[in-house]
């Protein structure tokens, strides 16, 4: 049996300039969570620790930071494989890898940079493992780097075989212009390897099951997401995958489960409000954030619907009261409006007008009433 810990898209060097008040905390969290990942890999008796690309955010990361990251990875007692991704691509002039080459011998550890298109061979627990890397040589490419692997006599290779690649997965990762080393699931499945470890997508693939939030659907293609989430585009925690290659029963079996590595959470949540109580907006926001830990969460709410006049006019203070304890908060409420009442309609339109009569008929449909009221007020203004 061989056990592999998978991480990727760690993006060391990310500045977090959007959050000036907590940027130092966010930067430090990434390092702490990598230490977490290494400890978890050790506790799970993993033989291999695989970084599937974008360990660093750019190819010009400071040498001091490169050394800090290498020092953490070197604490793993097994073998660490590092694949260059599209952010930290391997090419002439990419100073991040020059820094790596300078500090790694000094720091030590069994770290292997996968920067050649050729098989890498290892032995763990009396079993042979061949690794086929598809690393990035640029930030963008219309073609993936699986071509050389397709030319290998994979069916003739004994032992375990895993592919390690960085790029978008068609149908999973948004890549409208097909510029991020796009790979199709069919293309990956057609290659005779036992498992694919993929980087680039910041949310886990396959998705976690509903029944067990650590269990993964069966398959051969795995993307652990990121060890510490990076932004509000992804409503997931930082994760790693523990992948087990087992042939104890006489047949190869690959299984995987997710483990939480991250300390922080980015939550981007919708909040729909219906004006059925004086504190409807407050109730809706409390319900939306009830499961979040304010001390470790950056939250953004997109509020829609309507609420009563007093709450609507005092909503800014309400946001601060309810969300001020979070690491950072943001509220988008352009789709929230003040409840339309007959009193409000009477103030705007004469009771004998067609507009008044139309709005009166829509009283039982708050959504339609709101839309009609806004259109009529706009038409009146024009």
Largest sheet, described in full?
8 strands, mixed
- The SSE string, one letter per element, is EHEHEHEEEHEHEEEEHEHHEHHH
Tally of individual helices: 11
* Distance, first to last CA: 74 Å
Spatial shape: elongated
Radius of gyration (CA) equals: 26 Å
Binned strand content: 25-35%
pLDDT averaged over residues: 93
- How many beta-strand elements? 13
Helix content: 25-40%
By helix and strand content, what is the structural category? alpha/beta
Task: State the strand order across the main sheet.
Answer: 4-3-2-1-10-11-12-13
Low-confidence residue ranges: none
TL;DR?
The chain has 382 residues and is an alpha/beta fold.
Question: What can you see in these coordinates?
Answer:
This protein is an alpha/beta fold and 382 residues long. It has eleven helices and 13 strands. The chain has helices spanning 23-43, 63-73, 95-107, 147-150, 185-190, 280-289, 309-313, 315-323, 342-348, 354-361, 366-381, and strands spanning 2-7, 48-51, 79-82, 110-113, 120-124, 127-134, 160-166, 195-199, 221-222, 237-246, 253-273, 297-307, 328-338. β11, α6 (280-289) and β12 form a beta-alpha-beta unit. The longest helix is centred in the N-terminal third of the chain and has 21 residues, at 23-43. The mean pLDDT is 93.
